[in-house]
Amino acid sequence: MTDIDTLPDFNRKKPFDGKKFAGRVVVYTILIVVGLFAVMPLAVILLNSLRFNADILRESFIGWPSRITFENWDVAWGSACINASCTGVKPYFVASMLMVVPATIISTAVGLINGFALTKWKMPFASVVFVCITIGVFLPPQVVLLPWAIALSWLGLSKSLAGLVLVHVIQGTCFTTLFCRNYLINLPNDLIKAARIDGAGFFRTFWKIVVPLSPPIIIVTIIWQFTFIWNEFLFAVTFSSSDFRPITAALMSLNADDTGVSEYGFGSAAVLIAAIPPLVIYFFGGRYFVRGLTQGAVK
Amino acid sequence: MASLAITNAWKKYGEFLALRNINLDIKDGEFVVLVGPSGCGKSTLLSIIAGLEETSHGTLMLGDKDVTDLSAKDRNIAMVFQSYALYPTMTVRENITFGMENRRVPKSEQKQAVADVAKLLQIEPLLGRKPSQLSGGQRQRVAMGRALVRDPQLFLFDEPLSNLDAKLRVEMRTEIKKLHKRLGQTIVYVTHDQVEAMTLSDRIVVMNGGVVQQFADPDTIYKEPANKFVAGFMGSPSMNFIDVDVSGQAGNISLKFSGEGTDVALSLGDTRPELNDFLGKKVTLGARPEHFSNSSIAEADCVPLTVRVDVVEPTGPDTMVVFSLAGLSLVAVMPADFRPKEDEQVDLVLNLKDICFFDVMSGDRIPRASYNKASANQQELCRPSG
After folding, report:
1. Continuous segment of H or E residues that includes residue B189
2. Which of A210, A246, B204, B227 makes the best surface tag, with the fewest CB within 10 Å?
């Protein structure tokens, strides 16, 4: 009895190992330096968004604010001039939202259905179809630019919201299909068989069995698609017009105002405004993102 | 409830023939067990019956209806999976009602059916839980409940007990048997466990290499196996096989084999006229471990043998003895108190009454010419009395 009632000494000190300690110092130093490099641009832009443009021009681009102002954010949002229309980034922010939300939802839904059909529903030539779809992942966007321009003009969707949504849905489906297929392939086959025996067809099985089991990968694809489409520049600038322009395309024209003076202050603020939505998405879903991408990698 | 007739069923995967010419006639209300080693095609056959796979050739009749080309969802068959395959995001109640929802059964009927099944399987307190909150045995019950609730024409069980621990497995086995007795449903049950096959079934289908080796009741399978494969697969420990020379003359046959300097002769007299055709040839003798005993009483059918003990394995109720005889390693099941030392020479008795003979070339059992049922219990006489 006393053997397990008396606690042994748990505070044993490990002997000091100088070599190991030095190794740790080196590794941590490298990591900290790399980390600082990564955070640096964000820090510079964040600080500049709080400085007066005059201060930035007079002092230096990289520097600590001598005076703090929030005016840049106000101007960037509501009154900065872009291509001679002084509305700030607000309408472009809204335009991006109108494009990103439907494109993300549709491409995620299509990817999930594709993944299910490719893995669990004995589709003929499933592996060939899958290879074709994933080629899209590795194709540089420049390659598809011209074909898309032609296709959109055929469809009468050139330089419109619907056109850009279509482009992003189809381009994004390659990624979402890849993600969802790799996730769903690990779903137990017996579940699908059980549902079939229980009398459920394709869409009923999908809706009642597959979707409820897929939140991790749905979150991953939503984060991925939202961030990618929001930040995307090439399609945004090519397939937009003054009637409809996503924020990434609008930012390019922000600096070119009539006076010819570089407006680093509200330029920084505008860039940060454009970066907020992906950051918010990542902040809330990042946990799932890391988990979802590595899921199934190790049993 | 319905009968099931499988006629000339073949299944081909690429060039691989998973099933070859399967013919089974399963009666209404019968409990049939498909048994065989891994890869023998038993699960493929079950999938074909369920409609999850199509036959490459052949027909399936469920009752009077040809279901060969019907998909799983239109066959009215229920299945219990080895992994249980409970829908993880649904509660137990939703798991059980999912099939009825799909078939648009009215809510009130569903409610009644769930209540009945829950009572039958004693899972009433679990109805609100998720599968992850259940123990293995409870999941097993829910999986059965999901199958039972729909009142299907046929039940399929795919190794339903192999994920349970030994004690629970025996309990559930008894329960499944009770349930079958009570409900009288037609059941096709796949297992690799020959004890499950023997205890549960009305009839057993022994499969190997995609071919039905034998389809018969458990007693016949055990006592009159169709071939060496069935004889060796069914029964634990396995049947002992000895290749012997048939010598003597018709009416006075003796079997001889030798090895490591020992010659053994077993005199059969006129008890096995079926061996007359094999005089001067070899046959394979099949003796089950329980055909050996440690008695010193020598009856007419009992042959004394002196053997060397290799390994002694007490199991509790019995002692398994692995011994050498003429260079062969054989197994005998002995009474619990029989504990020879290893490498000891002991005297055993082999009862020739129930031993089987197989054709050396084909492996088929040589049918008994005159099976005398009156003396079928002779084996008991080889045991020491009292």
Report:
1. strand B187-191
2. B227
Model confidence over A136-166: pLDDT tens digits?
889 898 999 999 999 999 999 888 899 999 9
Angle at A101 between CA A96 and CA A104, to 5 degrees: 115
With an 8 Å Cβ cutoff, are B103 and A199 in contact?
yes
Kindly report the pTM of this predicted structure: 0.81
Q: Look at B73 and A208 and tell me if their CB atoms are within 8 Å.
A: no
For residue B332, is pLDDT > 80?
A: yes
CB pairs under 8 A between A and B: 62
Of B51, B71, B83, the CB nearest to A190: B83
- d(CA B187, CA B153) in angstroms, rounded, equals 9
Q: Which residues of chain A have a CB within 8 Å of the CB of B94?
A: none
Residue B48: exposed, middle, or buried by beta-carbon count in 10 A (0-12, 13-18, 19+)? buried
Whether a cis peptide bond, with omega within 30° of 0, leads into B273 is no
Measured in angstroms, the CA of A120 and the nearest CA of chain B are apart by 12
Provide the pLDDT confidence category of residue B155 given band limits of 50, 70 and 90: very high
**ipTM for the assembly:** 0.82
Q: Which residues of A are less than 8 Å from B102 in CB distance?
A: 198-200, 204
Contact B85 A212 (CB under 8 A): no
CB atoms within 10 A of CB B209: 15
